[in-house]
Specification:
- With 210 residues, the chain is mostly helical.
- It has helices at 3-21, 39-49, 51-71, 95-121, 127-162, 169-201, 203-208; strands spanning 27-29, 34-36.
- Pfam families: ECF_trnsprt.
Length: 210
């Protein structure tokens, strides 16, 4: 793939991320937190464009999360933005940047390798399954690492916001991963599979990504 084509495709995926991020489509308010589908173009971009460009898309994803949680905060926005005060304090924490960017960076890198692993496992006989599993894994990376960061770095503040005892935070985190994260991952896997099947079955798209 030529350098100019790479730059063009990277710009297209970046545009999709920005469109989702700054319209009601990308972040879905759930009261205490914002669910998102922005990780899906990051996952697809990682598989199609490779881990380096996927990493760039992941950073863009993280930046949109930072901006969204800063200018339109939800109850848990302090875990994504150091500009939002932690409950009970007058300031935020720089650890929010770690939660905001590290999981999203890995979402841009690891799906490429997950896809290659599953493709080798199935010896490329079931590309649809490989796309599906890579999409699911990429989505779970985001959910699990974000929620783990909340638990380890902001457990006390999370308990205060949720109005639960600190000993119940672990169970609450696991519940969110199971109730929200797993269905979100399945949706991400299905969309990833459909989009990449279309790319593979279209000569025009195949030429675009060569």
């Amino acid at each position: 793939m030529s350098k100019s084509k790479n730059i063009t495709l990277l710009a297209v995926f970046t545009g999709i991320i920005l469109l989702l991020a700054f319209t009601p489509l990308g972040f879905i308010p759930l009261g205490i937190i914002k669910a998102t589908i922005i990780h899906i173009p990051v996952i697809i971009g990682s598989i199609l464009l490779g881990p380096k460009r996927g990493a760039i898309l992941g950073v863009v994803f993280g930046a949109t999360s930072l901006i969204s949680n800063t200018i339109s905060p939800a109850l848990l926005s302090f875990v994504f933005s150091p500009f939002i005060p932690i409950p009970g304090l007058t300031h935020g924490s720089l650890l929010a940047l770690l939660i905001c960017f590290l999981p999203r960076l890995l979402v841009g890198i690891l799906p490429f390798y997950f896809y290659r692993f599953f493709a080798r496992l199935f010896k490329s006989r079931k590309p649809s399954v490989s796309y599906l599993l890579a999409g699911i894994a990429g989505s779970l990376i985001n959910t699990v690492l974000v929620m783990a960061g909340i638990y380890f770095f902001f457990g006390n503040a999370y308990a205060e916001v949720q109005n639960i005892p600190i000993k119940e935070v672990y169970g609450a985190i696991i519940s969110i991963i199971a109730i929200n994260g797993v269905p979100e991952a399945i949706v991400a896997g299905l969309i990833t599979m459909v989009v990449l099947k279309i790319v593979n079955n279209s000569n025009r798209f195949k030429q675009l990504f060569r």
